[in-house]
Each structure stands twice: as C-alpha cells, then as structure tokens.
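Service request form, structural biology core

Requester: graduate student, group of Dr. S.
Request type: structure prediction, single chain
Budget code: on file
Notes: please return the result as structure tokens.

Sequence provided:
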Amino acid sequence: MWEKNKEKILRILSCKSLKARIFLIIVIVGMLPSIWIQSAILSNYEDRAVSLRISDVQNQMKIIADHLLNYNYLQDTSSGIINAELDQISNLYDGRVLIINSNFKIAKDTYGISEGKTMISEEVIKCFKGESTSNYDKENGYIELTTPIMISGVSESDSTETDKIKGVMLTSVSTDSIAATLDILGRKAIILQIIICIIILGCAAVLSSILVRPFNQLTEAIKEIKEGYTEELANVPDYAETIHIVDAFNQVLSRMKRLDDSRQEFVANVSHELKTPITSVKVLADSLLAQEDVPAELYKEFMEDIA
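Core staff response, request fulfilled:
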C-alpha cells in the first residue's frame, strides 16, 4: 500500500506540468502550517490544563496538610473530618491520597490497601528534603504529586523561622477529563482541518489556473503562426518571464522572416537572370524551325549564337 502511494507521490513530484507543480506547492504551503497550528493548540491546551490541575490540587493539599497538623492526624487517623476531606479529594479528582509519616510508613491510604506499609521513593525522599514534586504520566493518564506536611517554628540559636517536615502527602489524580476534552477538541480540529483542506484545494486549483494562464496565452499566440510569417508579433505582458520569452520568440520570428524574404528575393533574381537567355535561345530556335531548306551555314551560325 505504501509503495503504491509512494509511486503516486513521486509521479506527481516528477510531473513536468507547471500548473501541477504550482498546485502542489500551494497545497503543501497551505496545509503544513494549519497542521502545525492544530498540533500546537492541542499540545498547549494539554500543558495548560495539566498545569492548572497540578496547581489546583497542590493548593488544596496544602490546606489539608495544615488541617492534618491541627488534628494531629499523623498520630491518630481516626478524625472523621480529615478522612472526609481526603475522601472528597479522592472522589473529586478520581485519585488516591497517601499520608506518609516521618518513618516512611503509610498512615492513611484512601484506597485502604497500603496502610502500615513502607513507602520509599525518590519523590517522597525529595519531599522530605523540602522539594515538592509533580509528574504527569500521559501514557497511564494520571498526575502524581507530593506535598510536605510542615510545621513552622523558631530556631532557639538565632531566632529565625524554620520549617520542620513531619510527613508527606503523595497524591495521584486522574487526567481522564483532560484526555476526554482533548479527544473532543481533536475531533473538532479534524473536521476543521478537512474544511481547511477543501478550501486550500479549491484555492490551489483556481490560483494555479490563473498563474499559468499567461503561458497558455503565449502557447496559443505561437500556435496561431502556422504557415509563413506574419507582421504581427506576439504580446503577453503579464509576467516578466513571459515578456522575455515573447521578446526572444519575436526576435526569432523576425530573423526567420528576414531569411524568408532573402530566399524569395534570391529566387526572383535567379528567375530573372535565367529568363533573358532562355528567351533568346527560344527565338533563335523558332527562327530556324520557321524556315525551310535552311543552309548549313545558317544552322551553324544560329547554333553558335545559341551556344
């Protein structure tokens, strides 16, 4: 299948028709930017949507982190208010929240399957060092981010404010809604792309016909000169290129006309030069034929004149 399409493409590219090449160039120049713009818009929307989702979830998790400290949730996970907030976040974003204490133990899992287990990962370790992380897994359709559970205090040595990380919140949120919106936008973009392609094809057909029209006029002007040479010269002043071609053609036409005139003059001169002696020969011959019993001396004299 690909080989057949490849042969068709190569056949079009190798076409010697100027109209076909102009048509192809307009189609390519018109469609490539539209395809690139479509891809850029969808990609930009996806990046923007993911960034907003991360920011929104991160802000809400920071609020919940403060509530965890207020309710001492890392030591006692029985608080109904905190559990309700965590469940609400999980349901809202179709995700999962893990509360990890300073011993890397999972104190709370909204799925209820990993509580009491140890969680050691690069993201968790970075978060305990004060570096919040976020990761978008496009293939699996989720965002994973970490939020530190920090308690602020004052250093006794230099009276400066310090933050002590008591735990980490590891949150995974689904991006199915973003993917669904991208799918809808993609379908609409395809429809729009088809419409644009139809418009570009129509414009390419019209423009290619208009652009090669002067060359067609030039061809017709040359075809009109079929027999002999005319005093009327071709004139197609639409493009500088056609002007150059017409000038060169008219010069050749003028040169050929001069050559033809020279030929006719030569033939006329030769005809005139031959007419006089042939007439004299004919007169002498007719004179001999008109006489009877012509002496041999007269024949010899006439033959000498003819010779």
